[in-house]
Amino acid sequence: MVTTNIELLGSAIQANIGSPNQNIYGKLGLHAWGHILISFITDPMAQYNIPPGVMFDVKTACRDPVFYRWHKFVNEFLVFHKETLQPYEKDDLMWNDVEIMDVSVNTVKSNSSPIKNRLMTYTKSMDIDVPKDMFIINRDINIDPVKIKVKSADHTPFYYTIRVNRKTLAPIKAIVRVFLAPIRDETGRALDINMQRRLAIEMDKFTVELNSTTETITRYSNESTMLVPQEKTISDQEKDIKSGSDTACPENSYCNCGWPSNLLLPRGTRNGMKFNLFVMLTNWADDITSEDSVITKGSTLCGLKALKYPDKKPMGFPFDRAIRLSNTPGQSLVTISDFAQQFGRSNMHASIIKISNAKSGCQTDEQPSKQQCWQM
Ligand SMILES: [Cu+2]
């Protein structure tokens, strides 16, 4: 009998140097093969010289709606595996040295005080520079740089405030894990706790040093390690491909790994969509894989190149495993907020926040000075 573990499963899904049975799963593994087969669907035998579809390339794949179905399919293998594992017990979750007293999120507003527990999204117009080769075949013709105007989602900058009490005096380091979990589905029906868990979005993960018995941690949205370290234009990427190097990207990191900063938040709704903002602190000394591992942008989603993932906890912890509906008699966990409070005041905390989307047509590239753009 072969013992299933996530390493084996991952190697079958995404080919790498340790992938077993390449003659069965293919040299590329299930995930990449899917991209290739789908991209050649219009001309599978190469009879008509039709170029492959957008699924062929990582930079364009998300333009095809099948991309999301394919990724859901691939992801489900890992979800099924995780469902076979035991839910986390109290000892896996609790860190007795710290207590989170309060968590809030604050939208930065010019010329006035921040707006508490309300995040704001809007649609902006932006110009993207594109290589002129996309429009003209004769490269000797000199034309002005070409820009395309596109509409894109964005949000007003915000920061988290996390108030922490400590029971020990010696300075300690903590890993802060921040998630947003939806409470209701698109029809307004309450999601059950395990659906809230599966739909939770990891917003940030970072290290802090705690030196005094009470601390207030402030963290800005643009610092999130879920974001792409540097955002590049198509021309920058082309230059990198031509030179065969990526000068802006330090070794052992995945510089293209993460969300573009404008897509950090889900859109929310006009009236404000409720989410649980969940924060958990874990002990850095227990979690870190080596003294010099650092949780950086890029590493949270893709790990570190040729090194161990900087954190011993699985990606998505503590929401990577099913939540048991009760850990003590008479207790019933219905929402992520119940999950956070199941051991009383602890190293976990959840606060309800709302994400509001600006009225359509609101030109809100600027700060939300126009109150009428958002329903407050
Ligand atoms: Cu893919």
Question: How would you describe this protein?
Answer:
The protein is of the alpha+beta class and 376 residues long. It has 2 domains: 1-84, Orthogonal Bundle (di-copper center containing domain from catechol oxidase); 89-373, Sandwich (Immunoglobulin-like), CATH 2.60.40.1520. Helices cover 20% and strands 25% of the residues. It has 10 helices and 10 strands. The chain has helices at 6-13, 22-25, 29-39, 66-83, 90-93, 193-199, 234-243, 284-287, 299-302, 336-341, and strands at residues 98-107, 115-116, 118-130, 146-155, 158-166, 172-182, 201-210, 214-220, 273-283, 348-357. The protein has a 6-stranded mixed β-sheet. Helix 1 packs antiparallel against helix 4 (66-83) and helix 3 (29-39) runs antiparallel to helix 4 (66-83). The longest helix is centred in the N-terminal third of the chain and has 18 residues, at 66-83. The model has no long low-confidence stretch (mean pLDDT 86). Copper (II) ion (CU) is lined by residues 31, 35, 61, 71.
